[in-house]
Amino acid sequence: MSRAAIRYAKAALQLAGENSTENVLFGDMQSIQETLEESKELRNMLSSPIIKAEDKKQVLLKVFSGQDDVTKNLIALLVANQRTALLGNVAKSYIELYNKEQGLQVAKVTTAVPLSPELEKKVLEKVKEMTGSDKVTVKNTIDESIIGGFILRVGDLQYNASIANKLNRLKRAFTLN
């Protein structure tokens, strides 16, 4: 994460705090992050030096027309400062700062297949046990290369129970002997 993206996110969080719209802006930032993750064309347009800043602004304001005024002003500011490529990182930084301010932990679980509701509940209980916090949400990422099992990340903690990791450990054990 770039320092510039974090600065923009902090400024947006502060402004939203003054207007008591932190929750609204949080929803906007989630929407922006998801939209940018799903649209390679939009990401390419934002980072393109060929497309004029005003055109980028018009596209962004149309795509995110239902957003709060603080979000629209943030977009205009990024355009004015020629920092539109940072929009995704600003949204991600805002989400992280907001969660931290709310005392919310995000458990990132990487699995080979989508989590079932039962398994998600077990993961949630394990994370609550590890962190001692009741404010925990689970974000599931699919990565078929781990073959099976899961990788759990909460803040700086990581627990790797993937089949690929176990196979690599076995391979190293046989290589050393």
List the helices and strands and how they pair.
Elements: H1 3-18, H2 22-38, H3 40-47, H4 53-63, H5 69-80, H6 87-102, E1 105-111, H7 117-131, E2 136-142, E3 149-154, E4 157-162, H8 163-176
Parallel strand pairs: 1-2
Antiparallel strand pairs: 1-3, 3-4
Helix pairs in contact: 1-2, 1-6, 2-6, 4-5
What would your notes on this structure say?
The protein is an alpha+beta fold and 177 residues long. The chain has two domains: 3-100, N-terminal domain of the delta subunit of the F1F0-ATP synthase (Peroxidase, domain 1, Orthogonal Bundle); 103-176, no CATH class. It is 62% helix and 15% strand. The protein has eight helices and four strands; from the N terminus they run ααααααβαβββα. The protein has helices at residues 3-18, 22-38, 40-47, 53-63, 69-80, 87-102, 117-131, 163-176, and strands at residues 105-111, 136-142, 149-154, 157-162.
Task: List its salient traits.
globular, 177 residues, 4-stranded mixed β-sheet, 15% strand, alpha+beta
How would you summarize this macromolecular structure in one to three sentences?
The chain is α+β, with helices and mostly antiparallel strands and 177 residues long. 62% of the residues lie in helices and 15% in strands. The chain folds into 2 domains: 3-100, Peroxidase, domain 1; 103-176, no CATH class.
CATH class of the largest domain: Mainly Alpha
Main pleated-sheet profile: 4 strands, mixed
**Mean of the pLDDT scores?**
89
**CATH superfamily heading of the largest domain:** N-terminal domain of the delta subunit of the F1F0-ATP synthase
Helical residue percent band? 55-70%
Strand content: 5-15%
Q: Per CATH, which architecture of the largest domain?
A: Orthogonal Bundle
Backbone structural class? alpha+beta
Shape: globular
Would you list the SSEs in sequence order as H and E? HHHHHHEHEEEH
Termini separation comes to 41 Å
CATH topology of the largest domain: Peroxidase, domain 1
Tally of contiguous helical segments = 8
Q: How many domains, as an integer? A: 2
Question: Radius of gyration, Cα only, in angstroms?
Answer: 20 Å
In spatial order, strands of the major sheet run: 2-1-3-4
Membrane topology: Peripheral membrane protein
Keywords: ATP synthesis, Cell membrane, CF(1), Hydrogen ion transport, Ion transport, Membrane, Transport
Subcellular location: Cell membrane; Membrane
Family: Belongs to the ATPase delta chain family.
